[in-house]
Structure formats: structure tokens, C-alpha cells
């Protein structure tokens, strides 16, 4: 059974099922379909499935043209039912793994899906979890649920972990250039996962087991979270000392060894960096260890949106204008430039807090026409992006640049508004005198 499945993967004759048609799952669908595999996309949202089956994308970095191309090839179809699971040789789970309000891992999406899969699984399938989780979750949580199928793990059913490595909006690397880390709950599962992902990327990195692969993913994102927290704290200190943090970073990065530049901002967003470190913090408590360094970084990063709100209030006060009833426009809601993803975006925190303090707040984002429902910011649902002409209309007291999109004319913004607070240093090249760098 193992050899047969290996052959199907290497010959691109396998059917790949991707569960979850979101920011992780949909790019994966395209990668496998473009490599010649037949792919079935599973999602519970009928609207998403309907869009995909008519060649329409709802994610900017997965253009409709790409969806239409793989549809026309006959290598892709989306469905809301799990009845097609038996057709698949590999099932890749790409579902949310958020934190609970108590900052504990919430694996409910993955567990519920595994429970639903059990009655559809057959002998000769590989299941891969791509959703970020803590070390041990694939083996200790997912494996026991899948074992209810009665299939023997490592002989009839195979299970591995391969963390997603997406960088939406970045053109530095193509999807096939980013190595993928794989680890199985047993050797056979690891062999299969490695063989499958070798067909879509130029390099796979095989590690000892799924626990190690889970730890790799957390390490990557904790590294970023801690270094962003460090530079955010340096920004606050240097600002008080009258030193420009951006000039410091640009000079420091000229050192060809021992330094890697990270940049400050209004906070951190996305589905990884604000969440993943706390998966390890939670797991560490099981072995009576505290993660003080990681938790401190989290505190600093979570405090940054509040720091920006404070700068807004102080800036207005200095000009004799109270924050209450002030007209403010936020530029950019997405968590990073040139994407349409606002998961965990610090701009949402800033917007909500300014509204809470009585300001009259609009936003403009060329990629987010309307704020969809979110777990943490329900009161912002259905707020719509202000037209660019209205932003330049001169009716606002102040603009806050929270995300630096390439499509926005910041020079025009600085000419039109009396005051601009730039949290991402995007106006530096324009050098207007009405910009405050926060």
C-alpha cells in the first residue's frame, strides 16, 4: 500500500483533497493543480464553493484567471460535502487554529473536521495537517480521532504535519521556491508526506517526526514576534531620546554579519505571529516552564496599537483639538501591504479604540471595500472603505497610515490633509513637514 501510494504521488496520478479554501488552502490547490494533480477543494461555505466552481477568486493573490485555468483543465473542483473524501489519496487540512479568549489553543475546527472525516476515510490515504499547532498535537489530538476509522496507522492510514509557508503579497519567492518542512507520526507517513510535497516545491526538509515539524513552525514565528517586539520597544525609547529609529535601522543593516533588520509598526497581524507564540507558552506550562521572553514580546506587540492611539490623542491636544468628535481617516486595514487579509490586523484595534474614545473615524483600503465579520471586532462589521476622492476632500483633521499599500498616493494625502501620522515610515521619501512618524 505504501509503495503504491508513493508511486501515485511521484507520477502525479494521485488525487489531492484540500480541506479549507482560505488563505492557506486555496494557494495550495493552485500549486497542486498546476503541477498536474487532480485536486478537490472542500469548504463548508457554499458561497466560496460557488465562486470557485465558476472561476471566481475571493483572495487577491490567487487571481480568478488562475482558478479559471485549473477549472478548464478539469483538474479542480470544489465541494461542500465530504462524500468525495474517498476519491482522495491525500487530504491536506488547512483550517483555522486560533486562540481562545484565555489565550489557549483552540483546535476545535481541526478536531470537528477529523471527527467528520472518520466515516469517509479508506485504506491507502495520507492525511496532512498544515494548520499551525503546538508540538504533539498531530500525534496526541488528531491521531486518536482518525484512529476511530479502524484503519491501522502507518500501514493503512498515514498522518503527517507540514506547516504552511505562505508570504502573501511578497514577490521575493515563488511558491515552488519556498522549502517545505515535513514530519510524520511514523516513518512511513513521513516518507509519503516528503514524496508528496517534493512534487510541488524545489526542496523538502524532512525532520524526525511531526512534533519536530510543529516546533519548526513555532520557532520561525516566535523568532519574528520577538524581534519585532524588540524593535518596537527600541522605537519608543529612541523616540523619547530624539533619535530616528528608521535611520538607526538603515545604518545598522549595513553590517554584513550578526544583524538582521526588523521594522517597527502599529502592532502585528496575520494568522501566525500574533497567535503561534502562545501555542508554545501554553504547551510549556504542561512541563512547568514559563516562557517569560515570549510572553513579554507578546505584551509589547499587543500594546503598540494603544501607543498609536495615544500619539493621535496627544497630537490633537497639542493643536488644541480634543479627540472626541475629531475627524480621522485610517489608511490601510490589511495586516501587511498589498494584501486583502485583515486577520488580527492592528489597524482594527486602532479603529475600534478611536471610535470608543469618541472620534469620528473612516478608513480607506483599496483591497478591503467592506469589513467582514471578525471574531474580535464585531462592531466594525460592514463598515465600508471611504472613496479616495473623499479622503482627499479635506474634511478630516488627521490621517493615520497603518498599512503602506503600494496603490495609495501618499504625496497627495499629505498635500490634502493638515496632519498625517505615519506608523510605517512610508512618507519618508516624500518628506512633507506635516507628517509625524509614530
Description:
The chain is α/β, with parallel strands linked by helices. The protein folds into 2 domains: 207 residues, Rossmann fold, CATH 3.40.50; 188 residues, 3-Layer(aba) Sandwich (Rossmann fold), CATH 3.40.50. It is 38% helix and 13% strand. Strands 3-2-1-4-5-6-7-8 form an 8-stranded mixed β-sheet, with helices on both faces. The chain has a 5-stranded parallel β-sheet with strand order 10-9-11-12-13, covered by helices on one side. Helix 5 packs parallel to helix 6 and helix 8 packs across helix 10. The longest helix has 31 residues.
**Share of β-strand residues:** 5-15%
Strand order of the largest sheet: 3-2-1-4-5-6-7-8
Q: H/E element string?
A: HEHEHHEEHEHEEHEHHHHEHEHEHEE
Number of helices: 14
Keywords:
13% strand; Rossmann fold; alpha/beta; 438 residues
Give a nutshell description of this structure.
This protein has about 450 residues and is an alpha/beta fold.
Strand and helix layout:
Elements: H1 2-10, E1 15-19, H2 25-34, E2 38-42, H3 46-53, H4 64-72, E3 76-79, E4 90-93, H5 108-117, E5 125-129, H6 137-146, E6 157-161, E7 180-184, H7 187-197, E8 204-206, H8 210-240, H9 245-252, H10 276-286, H11 292-318, E9 327-331, H12 346-356, E10 360-364, H13 388-391, E11 398-401, H14 410-416, E12 420-422, E13 435-437
Parallel strand pairs: 1-2, 1-4, 2-3, 4-5, 5-6, 7-8, 9-10, 9-11, 11-12, 12-13
Antiparallel strand pairs: 6-7
Helix pairs in contact: 1-7, 5-6, 8-10, 8-11, 11-12
Amino acid at each position: 500500500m505504501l509503495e503504491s501510494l508513493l508511486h501515485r504521488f511521484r507520477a502525479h496520478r494521485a488525487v489531492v483533497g484540500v480541506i479549507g479554501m482560505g488563505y492557506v488552502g486555496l494557494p495550495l490547490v493552485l500549486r497542486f493543480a498546476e503541477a498536474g494533480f487532480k485536486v478537490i477543494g472542500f469548504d463548508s461555505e457554499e458561497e466560496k464553493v460557488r465562486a470557485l466552481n465558476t472561476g471566481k477568486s475571493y483572495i487577491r493573490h490567487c487571481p480568478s484567471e488562475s482558478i479559471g485555468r485549473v477549472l478548464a483543465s478539469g483538474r479542480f473542483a470544489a465541494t461542500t460535502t465530504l462524500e468525495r473524501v474517498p476519491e482522495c489519496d491525500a487530504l491536506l487540512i488547512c483550517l483555522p487554529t486560533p486562540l481562545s479568549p484565555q489565550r489557549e489553543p483552540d483546535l476545535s475546527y481541526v478536531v470537528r473536521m477529523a471527527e467528520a472525516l472518520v466515516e469517509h476515510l479508506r485504506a491507502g490515504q495520507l492525511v496532512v495537517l498544515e494548520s499551525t499547532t503546538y508540538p504533539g498535537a498531530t500525534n496526541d489530538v488528531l491521531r486518536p480521532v482518525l484512529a476511530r476509522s479502524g484503519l491501522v496507522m502507518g500501514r493503512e492510514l498515514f498522518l503527517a504535519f507540514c506547516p504552511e509557508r505562505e508570504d502573501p503579497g511578497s514577490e521575493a519567492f515563488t511558491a515552488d521556491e519556498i522549502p517545505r518542512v515535513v514530519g510524520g507520526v511514523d516513518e512511513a507517513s513521513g516518507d509519503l508526506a516528503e514524496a508528496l510535497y517534493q512534487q510541488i516545491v524545489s526542496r523538502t526538509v524532512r525532520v524526525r517526526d511531526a512534533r519536530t515539524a510543529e516546533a519548526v513552525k513555532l520557532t520561525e514565528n516566535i523568532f519574528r514576534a520577538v524581534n519585532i517586539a524588540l524593535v518596537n520597544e527600541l522605537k519608543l525609547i529612541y523616540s523619547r531620546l530624539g533619535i530616528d529609529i528608521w535611520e538607526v535601522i538603515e545604518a545598522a543593516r549595513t553590517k554584513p554579519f550578526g544583524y538582521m533588520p526588523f521594522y517597527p509598526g502599529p502592532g502585528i497581524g496575520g494568522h501566525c505571529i500574533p497567535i503561534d507564540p502562545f501555542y508554545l507558552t501554553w504547551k510549556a506550562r504542561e512541563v512547568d516552564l514559563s516562557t517569560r521572553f515570549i510572553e513579554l514580546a507578546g505584551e509589547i506587540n499587543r500594546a503598540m496599537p494603544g501607543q498609536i492611539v495615544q500619539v493621535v490623542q496627544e497630537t490633537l491636544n497639542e493643536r488644541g483639538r480634543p479627540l472626541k468628535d475629531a475627524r480621522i481617516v485610517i489608511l490601510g486595514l490589511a495586516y501587511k501591504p498589498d494584501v486583502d487579509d485583515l486577520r488580527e490586523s492592528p489597524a482594527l484595534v486602532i479603529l475600534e479604540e478611536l471610535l470608543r474614545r469618541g472620534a469620528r473615524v473612516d478608513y480607506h483600503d483599496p483591497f478591503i471595500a467592506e469589513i467582514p465579520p471578525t471574531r474580535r471586532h464585531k462592531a466594525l462589521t460592514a463598515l465600508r472603505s471611504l472613496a479616495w476622492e473623499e479622503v482627499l476632500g479635506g474634511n478630516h483633521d488627521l490621517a493615520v497610515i497603518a498599512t503602506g499599500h503600494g496603490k495609495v498616493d501618499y504625496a497627495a494625502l499629505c498635500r490634502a490633509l493638515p496632519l498625517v501620522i505615519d506608523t510605517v515610515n512610508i512618507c519618508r521619501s516624500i518628506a512633507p513637514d506635516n507628517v509625524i512618524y509614530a
